TrEMBL record:
It holds the Pfam family LysR_substrate. It comes from Pseudomonas vancouverensis. One of its GO terms (biological process) is DNA-templated transcription. Gene3D superfamilies: 3.40.190.290, Winged helix-like DNA-binding domain superfamily/Winged helix DNA-binding domain. InterPro entries: LysR-type_TF_proteobact-type, LysR_HTH_N, LysR_subst-bd, WH-like_DNA-bd_sf, WH_DNA-bd_sf. This is LysR family transcriptional regulator. Residues 1-60 form the HTH lysR-type domain. Keywords: DNA-binding, Transcription, Transcription regulation. One of its GO terms (molecular function) is DNA-binding transcription factor activity. Belongs to the LysR transcriptional regulatory family.
Amino acid sequence: MLNRTELLRIFCCAAESSSFREAAHCLGISPQAVTRAVKELERLFGEPLFHRSTRQVQLSAFGTRLVEEARPALGGIDQLFHQHSRGRDQTLGGRVRMTVTQSIGHRVLVPLLAPLLREHPEIELDLRLNDVMADAVEAQIDIGIRIGTVRDRSYIARVVRPIALQVVATPELLERCGLPDNPLDLQRLPLSALVDRNNGRIWPWYFADQPQFVPSHPAFTSDDQEAECEAALCGLCIAQLPDYMVSAHIASGRLIELLPQSAPEPLDLFIYRPQRGPVPARVRLVYDHLTRYLGGAFDQDEAVQSH
């Protein structure tokens, strides 16, 4: 069944045509579809819209009044769609709200999006830096970037890069405390602990050939990975951090990677958006740009830090 707006559109075309067949030709539908639309409107209004004979179809008095009232209403609807589809969407104007972890937002995302936003100043970027994965619908999030796995099937997600976890420390700390022989040996050394903001617990350390463990007596505890990385660089602790935060420091010699043979399987860096309705042109542009260039942006960021 057609919606009422479409029924009125068919009726107005029939009223302006010499026959239902001519109206059907103009609309690209069958004459039977025009007849059904008119009959449905007559049922809804309880009034005849046309007087029919074997030779002609003529508007009734009620049908004449209805055409006069329907034309401006339909014109307003057309103007509404024209204004928004030809205006904001076609010019990419409007807000794009994103959520991303703090370290990725600071290090990678803003520099990556800056050229695109300069090219399209009508896009209004609303960036929320948060390590907690928010409900995209409730928070009105258009695009999100996270590390781990996608548990919610209501999201459309795409993996863009593997993220390796690396255990690192400064040469000075290792000279003072000694090298660990295996992952369990780490517990005797000063370790960092990262607090999970979702539940207040400490994130465990992961390894390929040993069970995960939580540092029993951490030398440094924080709920911010950037602070954890700075603590490692200052020689306060050994930390297990994602590769994009430490690769450049390893290359420069400021940090040393420990127990690489025990490194766990890499995690997935993924970009996602809610699976609902049509995607505005501005959101599609940003999403496609990130899907295409986000993975390579990490390598560029590491190269810049190493110089």
